[in-house]
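Structure tokens please, single chain.
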Amino acid sequence: MRIKLLALAAAFAASAPAVAHADKLDDVISSGSLRCGVVLDYPPMGSRDANNNPIGFDVDYCNDLGKALGVSVEIVETPFPDRIPALVSGRTDVGIAGTSDTLERAKTIGFSIPYFAFKDVILTREGSGIQTYEQLKGRKVGAVVGGYESLALEKDVKAWGQGSYRSYQTQADCNLALAQGQIEATIVVSAAAAAAVKDDKYKGLVVAGDAPYNIDYTGIITLRNEQGFLNYLNLFIYQQVRTGRYQELYNKWVAPGDAPDMTVPKVYR
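Here you go.
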């Protein structure tokens, strides 16, 4: 009799509709708060003002997302190497932090469609004699650890078999090392390079042309199994572009002119 009852219970459980579980989107809305990871030493995308308040393109983007969700926003400072660990450990709900959408990272986290596209340039010092990427061969170079530029530059230095490569924890550290002559050049996205050239803390920095890297498409990141939340983030990005808000933030924080196209030619548009 007991076996029959167990069998009936198992059959009922198998046929009963699955109980719906709240996903990250529901969790964020019900909590009333969005914890948004941002790199705050990477102007103009993220930095701090004279009163130590977070500012920048990514900060405004986080605040726009919170407004769309109807929740308050907590900006969580996440240095480049900490972007994914902060998300996986539960310290952040999303990361709007210039995270390149690589296949390797996608094994661990989920990406939205691109919310920004970066072009990489060579940042060096006046008088260095560096005018092209090929002239980095045999030089002392460096970049911020964990970034797309860092991986590509370190790989090339090893392939060249000459020169040296250093990695830095923050863009500020890298810029300072360049200004002080510890390295002779770095590769950085054009927006951050422009900000560094204007910054009085880094005397004599100049942009010496483009790096021969692919366009760096960056997405909003969250946990990879949160498909409902990712769908919402994709639609949010569409709305940012369609309403003109993306262009407005680009002109406010990066530069006058057209914001970068975030579509991949011959793939989607």
